[in-house]
């Protein structure tokens, strides 16, 4: 996490108002920056001086009813102040401390005005600092719950998120004359779009243009805990999973996960360890069970051979998400019929050439609740939802920044690289930014 000295998170950290996750992120940032440590210490000193001065003032006691009323009002003011701080964020580190002092001083004045006629002795003031209360969470936006989809299924797939109708997704065409519909996607996915989105939001404080957001690059920027191929299984493993779609009621998400083995069979031209060549993947859908489908991301011109054979380096992994519209009763009974209607076929050659090898799988199990899916599945879907919001996609359904942040926080898993924590910070910062003009 990169913080400036005027970031409101420093004040919240100094006053002990952050949760465990955010506190850890801020602590890592200040340990690496001496100026941030000095800023935190200055905030704590000022807060201690203000609290000490207020504690030294004699404070008459109030009758119980008056005291209860003032406490309720103070809680309302605290909630309002916390909400404002979370909305405006920056430039509030000293304002937050001063506001706390004003609230306490104001309460002291009200006590003096409301005290009973008989004078009372001032209370004994103990020389100790009361921990600052944890501010309440911001008022949540619409929950990420299924609602009717905003679009109707297409018999040969549904349009992509791309803005130009002449540039449909490479995976949205049916194979002519075939009973099944077939989709393809590339295996060598970059992550430049994700890094660009992160830079604009965290460093420049603005949202990217919708056309600059490539959802497949955002999904594949992150590392997932996929199983490596077993001994004797070849250089690549492929897995498919189903889960209920969190943003469109009745729809289902299909995740395709491909993982290359660690180690090398041959060194490539640039020193990369190549484990497979001429690799391509196809996903087939039985129209009797799949009425419509959409490959999320992977936008580009339609062509007869959408995914050319590609070289795959050691430890490479690829993730693709499809949104499916079950046909008839295929979505009932947990979606067992839907699982049987989807086939993922991976073809490749070993680096030294030879015959084409093939791996074909169907989704593991029916489409269960989204909340019960793995952390990796839910996190990838959350990134896709965030990308759809940034693209202002007509297919984003109930996706909101608040809902995506909640989902991301629940799908952190073993975040050893800190990527998912940083993504949560990107979501927080994006919430208050206006859409790109």
Give the CATH topology of the largest domain: Immunoglobulin-like
Total of DSSP H or I helical runs spanning 4+ residues: 11
What CATH first level of the largest domain would be assigned? Mainly Beta
The rounded distance between the terminal residues' Cα atoms is: 27 Å
What does the largest sheet look like? 6 strands, antiparallel
Please tell me how large the radius of gyration is.
Answer: 28 Å
Strand content of the residues, in percent?
15-25%
Order of helices and strands: HHHHHEHHEEEEEEEHEEHHH
How much helix is in the residues? 25-40%
User: CATH homologous superfamily of the largest domain?
Assistant: Gamma-adaptin ear (GAE) domain
The computed structural class is alpha+beta
Task: Tell me, briefly, the overall form.
Answer: globular
CATH architecture label name of the largest domain = Sandwich
pLDDT averaged over residues? 74
- Strands, count: 10
What ranges have pLDDT less than 50 throughout 5 or more consecutive residues?
83-178, 301-307
State the domain count.
Answer: 2
């Amino acid at each position: 996490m990169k913080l400036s000295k005027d970031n409101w998170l420093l004040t919240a950290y100094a006053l002990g108002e952050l949760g465990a996750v955010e506190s850890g992120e801020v602590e890592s940032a200040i340990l690496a920056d001496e100026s941030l440590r000095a800023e935190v210490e200055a905030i704590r000193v000022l807060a201690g001086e203000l609290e000490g001065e207020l504690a030294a003032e004699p404070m008459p006691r109030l009758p119980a009813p008056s005291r209860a009323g003032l406490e309720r009002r103070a809680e309302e003011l605290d909630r309002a102040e916390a909400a404002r701080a979370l909305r405006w964020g920056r430039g509030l580190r000293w304002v937050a401390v001063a506001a706390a002092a004003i609230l306490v001083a104001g309460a002291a004045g009200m006590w003096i005005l409301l005290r009973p006629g008989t004078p009372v002795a001032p209370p004994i003031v103990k020389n100790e600092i009361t921990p600052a209360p944890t501010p309440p969470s911001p008022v949540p936006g619409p929950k990420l719950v299924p609602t009717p989809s905003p679009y109707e299924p297409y018999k040969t797939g549904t349009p992509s998120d791309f803005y130009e109708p002449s540039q449909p997704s490479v995976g949205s065409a049916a194979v002519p004359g075939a009973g099944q519909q077939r989709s393809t996607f590339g295996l060598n996915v970059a992550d430049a779009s994700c890094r660009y989105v992160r830079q604009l939001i965290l460093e420049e404080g603005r949202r990217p243009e919708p056309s600059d957001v490539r959802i497949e690059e955002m999904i594949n920027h992150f590392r997932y805990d996929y199983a490596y191929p077993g001994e004797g299984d070849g250089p690549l493993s492929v897995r498919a999973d189903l889960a209920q779609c969190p943003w469109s009621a009745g729809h289902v998400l299909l995740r395709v996960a491909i993982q290359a083995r660690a180690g090398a069979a041959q060194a490539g031209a640039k020193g990369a360890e190549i484990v497979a060549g001429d690799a391509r993947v196809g996903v087939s859908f039985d129209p009797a069970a799949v009425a419509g489908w959409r490959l999320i991301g992977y936008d580009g011109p339609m062509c007869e051979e959408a995914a050319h054979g590609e070289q795959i380096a050691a430890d490479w992994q690829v993730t693709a998400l499809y949104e499916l519209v079950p046909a008839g009763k295929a979505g009932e009974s947990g979606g067992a019929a839907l699982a049987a209607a989807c086939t993922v076929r991976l073809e490749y050659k070993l680096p030294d050439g030879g015959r084409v090898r093939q791996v074909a799988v169907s989704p593991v199990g029916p489409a269960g609740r989204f909340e019960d899916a793995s952390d990796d599945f839910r996190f990838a879907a959350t990134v896709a939802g965030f990308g759809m919001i940034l693209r202002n996609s007509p297919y984003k359904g109930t996706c909101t920044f608040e809902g995506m942040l909640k989902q991301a926080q629940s799908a952190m898993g073993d975040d050893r690289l800190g990527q998912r924590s940083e993504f949560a910070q990107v979501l927080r910062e994006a919430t208050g930014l206006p859409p790109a003009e």
